[in-house]
């Protein structure tokens, strides 16, 4: 069946709904779903009004405080999380299709990355829901027994980015619910389809109000939610600018805010790196999901002894990447997410060319063929000999644009790598694991990869960002607060 005649298009016949107080609502205000694959309007999605937000938060608060959810055990919550996993499992093809159409992600990327991460998150947090450990400490007197308890905040708002609409939403939702909170999810305005579709599959599995899904813009729905007095905790995954705005907006409310933000992640390649595997990981780390991954290895620093060889082989490998229809199983890269982002990426490319920020080795020109010129596709673009202070080597482009910069000594590479306000991820390639350990210790980033890119254990070993890349805890811990309880065993003795 060709993409254009696929039966899954019927999913777009109905307006994608919001979920408030257990009810799916799609008969109010809507916005268009525009596919970046061909710039066509393919459907509609509900948008929350001010009244919707107030009604939804009131229902969520009630569900958290006095509904059945508040009486459920971790085991009960775990069972529901596994039912949600079953619902996703039996609709995998639909999710692949929706992400491809809505955000331009290749179906294979959704199949082999976004869906497994989503399903693993549900089973992992189902386990954690049943195993929330407190501690007990000696407190300096035998008369007092201490124990700590991990407790939910109550109503937790999760604001999602657009680059992983399904997996970021499922991962965060699973942790919020496992911790015993109720979840209010605001998907990104340009990528709300998959999570609202999920809401329609699982609305009946949860007591009313335990999961709320409110699509809408950041400046309206997002800002109303972050500042809502009945939202007890705010978690946001997005850009540094939005993170700073949310901190400003919520400052007077003294509520817990956790931020998972952007990165401009250095990939350091030493002279003794194994060339074949380093190339494979570096290309994937830079161009998977068209570079729209917070931990993408977007600035590559190469030691002078292998610089020429690495650059020519890297460019040859990049030119072999298949870019095209995200519905086509053979494509590694689809389009970027939408028009505004497409224009922003082009501004960086044009400015780098105009200001001679480096040597353009591949990409950097628009597609002219019939299919890709009609969508928001950008060629994988590589600039070499880029000074580490250039705009394209410093700012997060969040697209398929990579800079290559040579260095002589490791200290120089570390100074370049750490000379950034970002500190999300970093990597080093070398066959000398002692040297790798020294470099890893010196890198200022929340996660460091040695001889690979991307972390396989994001659930078991969740990482936050250093510096401007994040604030607050990560994983399930961020959705829990600690209560210390002190019991005097012999109350008559002081
Ligand atoms: P963004 O900051 O534009 O938007 C993120 C979310 O915030 C959206 O849902 C948006 O509607 C909402 N928002 C915007 N303004 C708001 C406001 N004033 N109040 C409340 N909500 C508001 O980010 P994006 O472009 O959607 O995502 C890309 C960014 O996310 C990149 O910087 C990327 O690195 C980062 N990211 C980080 C991680 C991580 O785990 N650290 C993961 C994925 C993406």
UniProtKB/TrEMBL annotation:
Keywords assigned: Oxidoreductase
Boundaries of every Aldehyde dehydrogenase domain copy: 28-483
The beginning of the lineage is: unclassified sequences, metagenomes, ecological metagenomes
Q: From which organism does this entry originate?
A: freshwater metagenome
PROSITE patterns from the UniProt entry: ALDEHYDE_DEHYDR_GLU
Does the keyword section mention ATP-binding? no
This chain belongs to which protein, by name? Unannotated protein
Q: Which InterPro entries match?
A: Ald_DH/histidinol_DH, Ald_DH_C, Ald_DH_CS_GLU, Ald_DH_N, Aldehyde_DH_dom
One of the Pfam families matching this protein, by short name: Aldedh
Can you name one GO molecular function term for this protein?
Answer: oxidoreductase activity, acting on the aldehyde or oxo group of donors, NAD or NADP as acceptor
SUPFAM superfamilies hit by this protein: ALDH-like
Record-stated family:
Belongs to the aldehyde dehydrogenase family.
